[in-house]
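Give me structure tokens for this 385-residue protein.
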Amino acid sequence: MMNIADTANPNQEFDLNGNKESHYLLLTPGPLTTSKPVREAMMLDWCTWDEEYKSITEAIRDQIVQLAQARPETYTAVLMQGSGTFAVESVIGSAIPQNGKLLIGANGAYGDRMAQIASTLGIEHVVMTESHVDPLSPAKLKRCLEEHEEITHVAFVHGETTSGMLNPLKELCEVAKLHDCTLIVDAMSTFGGIPIEVEALDIDYIVSSSNKCLQGVPGFGYVVAKRSSMERIAGYARSLSLDLYDQWHTMETSGGKWRYTSPTHTVHALSVALKELQQEGGIEARYERYTSNHQVLVEGMKELGFMPVLPPEQQGPIITSFHYPKVEGREFVFSTFYEGMKKEGFVIYPGKLTEADTFRVGTIGHVFPEDMKRFIQAVSRVMES
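Here you go.
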């Protein structure tokens, strides 16, 4: 079988008559462009009670623990229906006891969303806020934990796609653990695309989604958790459908059965996507490809007058924020630029920063350096039109 990374333009597909199919690439942080085999996997219907289907669920759980670089006797994985936010809420709402207190590090929209979840669920919490263009500070986290000795849990986002920021994972984990806090990491847009040694970092719960760097499609999230942490949270949940412990316990004791109707087509698609990840060479190889995509993007955009918002040492290879360019003689209008790029076959994201006029371009998914070169050429044509 051909390695998917070896093809010159793997996103050029043809219909049954040999005509080139026209559809845009999603240069976004998820949902993202997927391979044809992943999409074709959704053409079959599955029964949620069937033993073969349950075995697919169990295989996915086992593989995710392996990708976390964790031992199965120490760590486990639980799948949760819904978007990535559903999975994050299942952890926050299930892992913190009534007398617990949460500290949330927030330097973007997804840290802010954690705080919104905690407020909605009535969980006592404090928020350590940074600017959207500044990384979370381990020193500031240390001071906050010293000032609030009652804190029991710490949560933050690893790759904050508001800006493209990579927060300092290792250093933040070390500070949280020095203060004996249970650690929750939202790795929604990094798990599977950037190597993370979950067990070595002593993370209690790390969360991601099927439609991110594993290159599946939307439908469910997943949590890699310490078995010891899972075993002590029975009865903590503030929700029936998002009860993380009950979902895990059911999967553990029933051979991969989901409590309620599962996204069967999405599950099967992810099983194919995981095979593709293995064929590509694992997370290290995927990280190299994403990094190459990012390098091609940034170098090409700079030549066209688009400057990145973040400095290289803070920027991850997932999504990049660019300032609006200065165009002589006319105003840069993002909506016009967006429509022009869509006609060229590429969909990008508007900016989320409040401090500046920006837009974002993702470099993850079934996308390759050759695609990014075509993107740069398309940007040049749109800007000249």
